Amino acid sequence: MKIMYLLFSFTIGGTERLITDICNTMCNKGNNVYLYIVNDLYDKSMLNLLDKKIHVEMQRRKISQGKKVKTLFKIARYIYMHKIDVVHCNALNTPEILLIAKLVKPSLKVYYTIHGMEQYKNLSKIRIIYRNILCRKIIAISESVKKDIIKSGANKDKIEVVYNAINVNNYKKAKKQIMNMDKQRIFNSDNIVIGNIARFSPELKGQDILINAIDILRKTYPTIKCIFAGSPDKFHKEIFFKTKKRIEEYNLSNNIEMAGNITDIPVFLNNIDIFVLPSRLEGFGISLLEAMSMGIPCIASRLYGPEEVLDFGKRGHLFKPGDVYDLVKVINAVINNYEEEKKRAEINVTEVYKKYSIESMCNKLLVLYSV
């Protein structure tokens, strides 16, 4: 089967890591895999993670230039010339650029994943109808996203829930190596380290909420440290530097580290005690899976996506979204009962391996592609 994954950009982020794993797994299963990146916005380190057998096409369209009509024709020609069977859209507006491709090749199967909450409500009725007609299946990454897009007009008969996943083999291997080398982190209340992995965009990912919580917690735990992994895109660079300046002004430099993009997530996770996802809006939370796969106690905002991942509080703690004091309370509770929290977190590892493996996810996608 010839499968093309369609994205506007390919920078470092949760969705991009997921697409990388999907492409590599589909390739290993014997499919011809194509990755089409529309905009001149990509990270070379991400491209280096792709299997060499994957066909990568970078249109390198300048974002400011638009050139939407030209893009429609370029994609249509690429799909026709390479005899693509399936196109899987992984960005909100990608279905629009397949209009001519579908006219040129009526047999083309189009699949479309919605990766976040409250995205569909921003689409006009005509664009929602267009998606209902164009797409063979609309894939929701959680039951919460499914309900959200149905409410906005998506055809419920075309929606399938396929949970996001991670390459569990990488985490199994990393965890085994850490245990064999006896490098597993030992909790020490005088050296507490909290971690967060997310693209820097506070209005969605809530990094500012966690920063404010650390400012309060350092009064009780002066040496507490929080490490933020993830860089801003070009739209968030200004607020990123303003945040760093604020950290310095409030004398938080010893307590907060902005680590930028990281290449080895298992190593990062092994060096923290607690993982916190303080998002204001989150359809799922791949970084939660990553933390859970390494046996790290997790805390997340009580949003529909993270709630599902944490089994509504059975596999981690939830706090009221945006409430700094509730987050402080929950972090304190985990610190004060860390031994039990760690035991519970280690049980989560097996659940992640079983339910959220990239192998299982790709098998489900292949079944849908054959419909």
Layout of helices and strands:
Layout: E1 2-7, H1 14-28, E2 32-39, H2 44-47, E3 55-61, H3 68-81, E4 86-89, H4 99-104, E5 109-114, H5 125-134, E6 137-140, H6 143-151, E7 159-161, H7 168-180, E8 193-197, H8 202-205, H9 207-217, E9 225-229, H10 237-249, E10 256-260, H11 265-270, E11 274-277, H12 286-293, E12 298-301, H13 304-309, E13 317-319, H14 324-336, H15 338-355, H16 358-369
Parallel strand pairs: 1-2, 1-4, 2-3, 4-5, 5-6, 6-7, 8-9, 8-11, 9-10, 11-12, 12-13
What is the arithmetic mean of pLDDT?
A: 94
Bulk shape? globular
Write down the secondary-structure element order: EHEHEHEHEHEHEHEHHEHEHEHEHEHHH
Q: Percent of residues in helical segments? A: 40-55%
**Spatial order of the strands forming the largest sheet:** 3-2-1-4-5-6-7
Indicate the structural class.
alpha/beta
- How far apart the termini lie comes to 13 Å
Report on the biggest sheet. 7 strands, parallel
List low-confidence stretches. Answer: none
Strand content: 15-25%
Q: What's the number of helices? A: 16
Number of strands: 13
Radius of gyration: 21 Å
